[in-house]
């Protein structure tokens, strides 16, 4: 494997993440599976560990800028961390079940989750662009000062955490949709809050994958080497680029990737 090429790819993916706030695991996991022919189980585990540090770097920056809604993070994490551990249990079950080939079945699962996440995100973006006065989601906002709001937020976190534990996909994208749909956050706090919960979630999930032995440090280190500087560069460039146009391009790529993942091998 050409690890220098992986570093280069990771650098450009990092730029995309820095520019748009999404796309890390959604691009890296398929990249490892298709371009570098990494088994799906190893791709998922290595991506989780690599993405975890990238999210932590972003969280520190947003903490300094005071753009994190701690109450939202707290109640999401209360659900997402146990949910991700349950997802890891499912991951381990499929891995150990000799009658199931996880490396064969995992890519379509990832593809399905990625397709759903991308279509929902693209729909929200298109509605906001062409129908700015129309709210794309009609669900009521969650009030975290009430017990009901806290419970519902925890349940949402648990469901999404399970998907992250099983596939590594959507620690940022799907949670971002939840934050847009159910909470009144401005764009800066949305990104900071999303990064914060994802950093905690992926750190816990990373520990699980380390225990399962599905992490290849020969993959993680080149991803870090390229991805972290890429995120920094992307964040600096973000004020000069039209983010909506970049998101549309990214969603197009993600739909193509997810469609490929859904195809039988």
Automatic annotation (TrEMBL):
Membrane topology recorded in Swiss-Prot or TrEMBL: Multi-pass membrane protein
Coiled-coil spans in chain: none
Transmembrane segments: 6-24, 31-53, 73-94, 106-131, 151-183, 219-237, 244-262
InterPro entries the record matches: TM_pro_TauE-like (IPR002781), TSUP/Inactive_protease-like (IPR051598)
Subcellular location: Cell membrane; Membrane
Keyword field: Cell membrane, Membrane, Transmembrane, Transmembrane helix
Predominant subcellular localization, coarse grouping: membrane
Record's GO cellular component terms: plasma membrane
Family classification: Belongs to the 4-toluene sulfonate uptake permease (TSUP) (TC 2.A.102) family.
Protein name: Probable membrane transporter protein
């Amino acid at each position: 494997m050409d690890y220098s090429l992986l570093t280069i790819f990771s650098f450009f993916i990092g730029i995309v993440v820095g520019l748009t706030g999404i796309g890390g695991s959604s691009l890296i996991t398929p990249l490892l599976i298709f371009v570098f022919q990494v088994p799906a189980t190893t791709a998922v585990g290595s991506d989780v560990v690599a993405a975890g540090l990238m999210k932590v770097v972003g969280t520190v920056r947003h903490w300094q800028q005071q753009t994190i809604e701690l109450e939202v993070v707290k109640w999401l994490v209360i659900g997402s961390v146990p949910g991700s551990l349950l997802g890891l249990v499912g991951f381990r079950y499929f891995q150990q079940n000799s009658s199931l080939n996880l490396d064969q079945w995992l890519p379509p699962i990832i593809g399905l989750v990625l397709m759903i996440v991308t279509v929902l995100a693209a729909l929200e973006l298109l509605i906001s662009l062409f129908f700015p006065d129309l709210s794309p989601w009609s669900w009521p906002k969650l009030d975290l000062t009430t017990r009901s709001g806290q419970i519902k937020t925890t349940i949402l976190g648990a469901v999404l955490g399970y998907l992250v534990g099983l596939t590594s996909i959507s620690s940022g994208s799907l949670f971002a949709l939840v934050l847009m749909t159910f909470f009144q956050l401005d764009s800066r706090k949305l990104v900071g809050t999303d990064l914060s919960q994802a950093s905690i979630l992926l750190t816990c999930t990373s520990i699980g994958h380390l225990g399962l032995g599905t992490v290849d440090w020969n993959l993680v280190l080149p991803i870090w080497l390229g991805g972290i500087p890429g995120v920094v560069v992307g964040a600096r460039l973000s004020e000069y680029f039209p983010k909506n146009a970049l998101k549309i391009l990214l969603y197009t790529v993600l739909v193509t990737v997810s469609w490929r993942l859904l195809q039988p091998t």
